[in-house]
Amino acid sequence: MFTTPAAPRILTRLTKATTPTIAFSPVLSQLPRQQRHQIRAYANPADQPGFESILDAPPTLVRAGQKRHGPGLLLLIAIPVTAFALGTWQVQRLQWKTDLLAKLEDRIIKPPLPLPPQVDPAAIHDFDYRRIQATGRFRHDQEMLVGPRLREGENGYQVITPLEREGGSKVLVNRGWILKDKKDQRSRAPEALPQGGITVEGLLRAPWKKNMFTPENRPEIGEFYFPDIEQMAKLVGAQPVWIEETMEPDLIEEMNAVSVGKPIGRPAEVNIRNNHAQYIVTWYGLSLATTVMLYLLVKKPPASTSRKIRHVKDWS
Question: Where are the transmembrane segments (predicted)?
Answer without folding.
Answer: 73-91, 279-298
